[in-house]
Design goal:
The protein has about 130 residues and is an all-beta fold. The protein is built from no helices and eleven strands. The protein is globular and about 40 Å long.
Length: about 130
Amino acid sequence: QVQLVESGGGLVQAGSSLRLSCASSGRTFSAYTLGWFRQAPGKEREFVSALRWTRWGSSTAYADAVKGRFTITRDNAKNTVYLQMKSQKPEDTAVYFCASGVVPLATAENPVPYDYWGQGTQVTVSS
């Protein structure tokens, strides 16, 4: 059974940094695209970042709202993907989810093709 477990969320002040982790089990970690999405109260789930591993290395994608502030990485040996968040803003407040699926990076923003999701971790950024 495939499982994704997020951790690392919390309450931070604006301008601070936080690193989220997503540990995966139950499928060949390196064969799938790993994505991060977030959902704020009263809003739809939105794409944050994604990483796809190929034999030539990792390819990444970022939402414009986080580009230059967030970095996605993965550790295949630990079956874990990370989201390093820097210079956080109050508008980054949301529940953050990781997801896994056979998803081309060009369409990684679409949550529909991801077939497994974690339970989410809350990130709250105070002003």
